[in-house]
C-alpha cells in the first residue's frame, strides 16, 4: 500500500474569463480514499479533473499527484472520461483500447507481449468485456465502450483514479460491476478515487468523503455531514431538502440544475430528521 497523500490541492482556484469557478480548495487524499464530487451543472467538477490531469491551469494554489505537480500523461493517473460515443470507423478493437492504458515501461522487452496480453485479458474479464474484446470499438454500444474505458483507466495500476460520471449510460448491473471494480482498486491496490457524479446513491456505501461544489463555494466532509438540508441550503443560499429513505439520499430544490434524484426516488423518499445543527464555520471537515 502506498504511503502519504497521493493527491494534494492547496489553496487552489480556477476560473475562466474573469469568472472564478471555485477557490480556496484544500484537499488531500490518502491512498485508498474514495471521494465523490457533486454539484450542479457548470459548477466545475470536470474542471477539477482537468486540473488533476494537467490539462487545466489553476489561477491560484497548487495541485500535486504522488508528490509532483499535476501534469499531462502522468502514469500515476488513470482516467475514465465522460461517456461519448466513438466513431463507427475507429480503427481499434476493444482489447487495443485497454492496452493503450498500460505503461509499457513496466514490462521487460521479452515479457512485454505475453504479460501485456495477460493483463489486458484480466482487465477485460474484470469489466465483463471479454466477449466483445476483438470487435471494433466503434460498433459497440455506449455502455460497452464505457466498460472498456474503465478497464483502460485501471491498466497500469494508477495511484489516482479520476472518474467523470463513469456510470452514465450503464445499466444497473454494470453500474454495480464498475462501481465494485473502482472500489476494489481503492481498497486492494490503494488507489485514491475522485468520482464525479450527479447521483451519490450508487456509490454511497464506498464513499469516504464528499466534495460538493455550488455557486463558487464548496464543502468537504463525510457524506452525511455534507448531504444535509442545512448544509446544502447554506451552500446554495436557497431552500434545499435532503431526504433519506432506506439509506438512499435524495436532494430536492426548485433551482437545482444537476439534481440528484430520479422520479422513482422522489416517490419513495421520506423526510430525513435533520435536527443536528451544523457547527461549522462555512467549511465542514475540510482537510
Ligand atoms: N476552457 C474553458 N474556457 C472557458 N470556459 C470553460 C472552459 N472549460 C470549462 N468552462 C466553463 O466552466 C464551467 C464549469 O465546467 P465543468 O465542465 O467543470 O462543469 P461540471 O460541474 O463538470 O458540469 P456538468 O455537471 O454539466 O458536467 C462551465 O460553465 C464551462 O462552460
Automatic annotation (TrEMBL):
Molecular function GO terms recorded: ATP binding
All copies of domain ABC transporter, residue ranges: 7-240
Name of the protein: Metal ABC transporter ATP-binding protein
Region of interest (Disordered), ranges: 259-287
Keywords of this entry: ATP-binding, Nucleotide-binding, Transport
Any Pfam family matching the protein: ABC_tran
The family this protein is said to belong to: Belongs to the ABC transporter superfamily.
Amino acid at each position: 500500500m502506498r504511503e502519504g497523500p497521493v493527491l494534494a490541492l492547496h489553496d487552489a482556484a480556477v476560473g475562466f474569463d474573469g469568472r472564478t469557478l471555485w477557490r480556496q480548495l484544500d484537499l488531500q487524499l490518502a491512498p485508498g480514499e474514495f471521494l465523490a464530487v457533486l454539484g450542479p451543472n457548470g459548477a466545475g467538477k470536470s474542471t477539477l479533473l482537468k486540473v488533476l490531469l494537467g490539462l487545466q491551469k489553476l489561477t491560484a494554489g497548487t495541485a500535486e499527484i504522488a508528490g509532483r505537480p499535476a501534469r499531462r500523461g502522468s502514469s500515476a493517473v488513470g482516467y475514465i472520461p465522460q461517456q461519448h460515443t466513438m466513431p463507427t470507423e475507429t480503427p481499434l478493437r476493444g482489447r487495443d483500447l485497454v492496452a493503450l492504458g498500460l505503461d509499457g515501461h513496466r514490462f521487460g522487452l521479452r515479457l512485454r507481449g505475453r504479460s501485456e496480453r495477460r493483463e489486458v485479458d484480466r482487465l477485460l474479464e474484470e469489466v465483463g468485456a471479454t466477449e466483445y474484446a476483438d470487435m471494433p470499438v466503434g460498433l459497440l454500444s455506449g455502455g460497452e465502450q464505457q466498460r472498456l474505458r474503465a478497464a483502460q483507466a485501471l491498466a497500469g495500476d494508477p495511484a489516482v483514479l479520476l472518474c467523470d460520471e463513469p456510470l452514465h449510460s450503464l445499466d444497473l448491473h454494470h453500474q454495480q460491476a464498475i462501481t465494485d471494480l473502482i472500489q476494489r482498486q481503492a481498497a486492494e491496490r490503494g488507489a485514491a478515487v475522485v468520482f464525479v457524479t450527479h447521483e451519490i446513491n450508487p456509490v454511497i456505501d464506498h464513499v469516504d468523503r464528499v466534495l460538493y461544489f455550488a455557486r463558487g463555494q464548496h464543502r468537504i466532509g463525510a457524506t452525511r455531514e455534507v448531504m444535509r438540508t442545512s448544509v446544502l441550503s447554506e451552500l446554495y443560499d436557497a431552500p434545499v431538502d435532503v431526504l433519506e429513505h432506506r439509506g438512499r439520499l435524495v436532494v430536492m430544490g426548485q433551482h437545482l440544475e444537476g439534481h440528484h434524484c430520479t422520479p422513482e426516488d422522489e416517490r419513495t423518499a421520506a423526510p430525513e430528521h435533520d435536527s443536528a445543527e451544523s457547527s461549522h464555520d462555512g467549511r465542514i471537515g475540510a482537510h
